[in-house]
Amino acid sequence: MPLPTFEMKNIGEQIHRVMGVVLFLIMGYSLIMMGTHIRASGEVTTVLLLPFYPVTYAMGGTFFVEALILVVDILKAREVKNE
């Protein structure tokens, strides 16, 4: 069985990155929506009475940042391929 070529590896990496972008966007959106529901319900921690929603908003934001990083990686890989 022949070893995969550079082109085959590059295509596999790009597919992996696109799947990561989709996954992180879905998870980020879900966390933002969850934060909105938690904020509307007024749910807080038991001991310190701190609200939960800032944590879920922050997690959702970091998932969006990770999706952006993967998009930049995809664009950089296309740029290197064109050179």
Would you write up a description of this structure?
The chain is mainly α and 83 residues long. The protein has a domain at 28-82. It is 80% helix and 0% strand. It contains two helices and no strands. It has helices at residues 6-41, 53-82. It is elongated and about 60 Å long. It starts with 5 loop residues before the first helix and ends with a helix. The relative contact order is 0.16.
Keywords summarizing the entry:
83 residues, mainly alpha, 0% strand
Q: Averaged pLDDT, please? A: 91
* Total of DSSP H or I helical runs spanning 4+ residues: 2
Residues in β-strands, percent: under 5%
Per DSSP E runs of 2 or more residues, the count of β-strands stands at: 0
Q: Can you give the helix content as a percent range?
A: over 70%
Radius of gyration over alpha carbons? 19 Å
Which stretches of 5+ consecutive residues score pLDDT under 50?
none
Distance between the termini: 31 Å
List the secondary-structure elements in sequence, H or E: HH
The major β-sheet equals: none
Approximate shape: elongated
SSE class: mainly alpha
